[in-house]
Amino acid sequence: MARRADVVALLQPGASHVNLDGLAVDRVVADLRDASSVLAAAEGCRVVFHVAALYRFWARNPRDFYDVNVGGSLNVINAAKAAGVERVVYTSTVGTIGLDGTELDEAADETAWARIDHLFGLYKQSKYVAEHEVLRAGAEGLPVVLVQPTLPLGPGDRAPTPTGKTVLDFLNGRIPGWFDTALNVVDVDDVATGHVLAAERGAQGRSYVIGGENLELRQILDILAAATGLPRATIKVPRRAALAAAHASDFLEGRLLRREPTVPLEGARMAATRMIFTDARARRELGYRSRPAVEAILRSARWYTDNGFVSPKRLARIRWRDDAELSANDHIPKGKAGIPLDRSPKSSA
What we know:
This protein is α/β, with parallel strands linked by helices. It has a single domain, classed as NAD(P)-binding Rossmann-like Domain (Rossmann fold), CATH 3.40.50.720. About 40% of the residues lie in helices and about 15% in strands. It contains eleven helices and eleven strands. The longest helix is centred in the N-terminal third of the chain and has 21 residues, at about 65-85. The chain is globular.
């Protein structure tokens, strides 16, 4: 449903803005770390959606994670205070949620507190700090609500993000095997809708997991294989082997050669953890709904193939199947606990 809102988009300097082409939005190019530019962009706004972050597993300058994710968030908070906005919606991450029960296939929710040693990598750590700065501002009176997206997939991921890279790497033949792990998959458009619902209906200072369905990584890869006709990933990679390769890649490529590791350590650590979640609070309190995970996976895959991200050799091998023929439950093996794990009611967005 259209909200008839006037939108101002704060855009990263030097980044592609093509995803906004054709949309009636005012564009402001500014560095999130520039407090005065952020302040100017917030003037006259009623609601601020703070969705920007350095979302990567590695950066040549590690300090960038804190400068952008923490310092940038503080700039947004101060700008929102100065502008007197009615609501700030802060995009956090399920990476700040505790996962102690997920190895037993118990889906985590907003009440699960994180163990510090589970905050793998600078992205999670900086987002954890930023989240608490937002909560601090909320305790001091700033009208804030937090959303914690799970694993967003879908069109428009030009970076690509670490989540989208899983799909893209499969399409390009770079994933011969799979880890014994599970993830919560959600369509990017449903995440966007969840943000709007949080702005309209979210409680002050409350956080909401915005998710979809819990699937094992093997299931996600099998969905892609079934949809494209590309070979399935057949090798189960032991967690210890993955972590050993990641440590070697981090040392040789990341530290010595100063380039992004082929096997990022943070990604390998995440792969060794079952990241399953329930979004029951958002469904109950916000009226949030999500489409089936298989749709999100296939929308992501088709977008990458249609926009030049897949090598010509692999592209020539793809033979798409009709979306209606595919089902996350009917065409791939179930997980060790009968995945999908999140059995909360689902409906189309």
